[in-house]
Design goal:
Helix content is about 30%, strand content about 25%. The protein is an alpha/beta fold.
Length: about 450
């Protein structure tokens, strides 16, 4: 982190805490810390503040709007980490974000043309990215909204990628394709099935969001587009998120998002191993509904070694969602046995049957070999001193391999992918039971 980013974060954190201290919800939640500050015993300090839960955001943290201002943006979550939650931003907040963005882009782009991007839109969070987007002109690529819901949208997308534009201040060709992982897979396979050579496009970057990108998909996208896909991590409650280092998978957050990690079952800071990820959204973001030490349900692994690519020591690697991961329970607390991201990585293998994607698309010819989501489920059961972790999967009988051999292959794959699973099985804490189940309907979406 350079000095200018560090200076911005320190200044923005002070402004964020000051604004949050005026919100009735935080006045109640932080009453002890605010009283201590009033007695001259130090200001409101981030490390001493309690965690903001998803339930509190949903039911208690009301938007705070100044006189003459109004709500101008509403985003809802998908509910994949808990109850569906709404996040509000006022027009005043959006205006301040736009000014902040313009000041940033003046230092970055220095008058260069803005890139054109083709955005595969999925209405997951209740709001599209219209035109330049909510941050303001000149900050982000100009997004052409696309979709894969019908053949006509696929053809329109191909036309956008081939077309040359003459637009003041913008590049002449689309050079980026953005989209949810699922949509990128389907759009790319349609281009392959339509025999569209990648050389007919000028795409230089493929950017994913809203879902985990297994290595199988990363290789597939990289082969066609002739570039390494950029995988992002985000959740709908915040603007922006983090990119993932292609080497260590460490999360590299945008400057206005301040990450912290606490222990699984306590609010103490975590310095190694597995912990819960907390996010604070810094000024000028979040003034309507401040997010301070917000726990969205995501778990991370703290990596001690320095990454040779990004140079980070103590990288935060996303390992999954709290409500989708498997744990060993004990009187000393929980211990992660299998993170939901490692479960997904292992599940994208030929041994596991996939869903059939978008059967109505005539342009999509190969929809069964790799496009679908794995049909697989995992759960744990305490059996005395041990925990039985059962992974059930719909076997791909088309491989001509016995179900028991398919199960052995998947078991080995799980142990290969997950260091936590290897450790807990090796220490005798977990019995791993992998079961083929014909008729299973549980699907690993996203």
């Amino acid at each position: 982190m350079n000095d200018s980013v560090r200076a911005y974060q320190l200044s923005a954190l002070r402004a964020t805490l000051r604004i949050a201290s005026e919100n009735p919800f935080y006045k109640r939640k932080w009453k002890d810390q605010i009283a201590s500050s009033a007695r001259g015993e130090g200001g409101v300090e981030l490390d001493r503040l309690p965690i903001l839960t998803k339930e509190e955001l949903k039911t208690e943290l009301r938007p705070m709007v100044g006189e003459g201002d109004k709500i101008a943006s509403i985003i809802h979550t998908t509910g994949s980490t808990g109850p569906v939650t709404y996040r509000y931003r006022s027009q005043g907040e959006l205006d301040r974000i736009a000014e902040f963005g313009k000041s940033v882009v003046r230092n970055i782009r220095a008058g260069n043309s803005r890139p054109l991007a083709y955005m595969l839109y999925g209405p997951y969070h209740g709001q599209n990215l219209p035109g330049p987007g909510p941050i303001g002109e000149g900050v982000a690529p100009y997004y052409f909204a696309g979709a894969i819901w019908d053949d006509i949208f696929i053809r329109q997308g191909v036309e956008q990628l081939r077309r040359e534009f003459t637009l003041p201040g913008l590049e002449s060709r689309v050079t980026q394709v953005h989209g949810a992982v699922r949509l990128l897979r389907i759009f790319t396979q349609c281009l392959i099935d339509m025999q569209v050579p990648v050389g007919e496009t000028k795409v230089e970057a493929v950017v994913s969001f809203a879902g985990y990108m297994p290595s199988e998909v990363r290789r597939f996208l990289g082969r066609y587009w002739n570039c390494n896909p950029i995988e992002t991590f985000s959740f709908s409650e915040t603007f922006g998120g983090a990119t993932k280092c292609p080497h260590c998978n460490g999360l590299q957050f945008m400057p206005h998002l301040l990450p912290q990690v606490v222990e699984l079952d306590a609010d103490n800071p975590a310095h190694s191993g597995i912990g819960r990820l907390l996010i604070t959204e810094l000024y000028p973001f979040g003034t309507t509904q401040p997010l301070i030490k917000y726990f969205n349900g995501d778990l991370v692994r703290i990596v001690d070694e320095q990454c040779p690519t990004c140079g980070t020591i103590g990288s935060l690697v996303h390992v999954g969602r709290d409500n989708e991961s498997c744990f060993v329970e004990s009187p000393q607390g929980r211990r992660l046995a299998l993170g939901s991201m490692d479960l997904r990585e292992a599940a994208y293998t030929p041994e596991v049957k996939r869903t059939v994607e978008f059967p109505h698309l005539k342009l999509l010819k190969d929809r069964e070999s790799h496009l679908g989501a794995p049909v697989l489920a995992a759960h744990t059961k305490c059996e005395g001193a041990k925990t039985r972790l059962t992974v059930s999967f719909l076997p791909n009988l088309g491989l001509g391999i016995s179900q028991s051999n398919l199960a052995d292959r998947l078991r080995n794959r799980l142990l290969e992918v997950s260091p936590e699973l290897r450790a807990t099985v090796g220490e005798g804490l977990v019995d791993l039971d992998v079961q083929p189940e014909v008729g299973l309907e549980k699907i690993l979406w996203k």
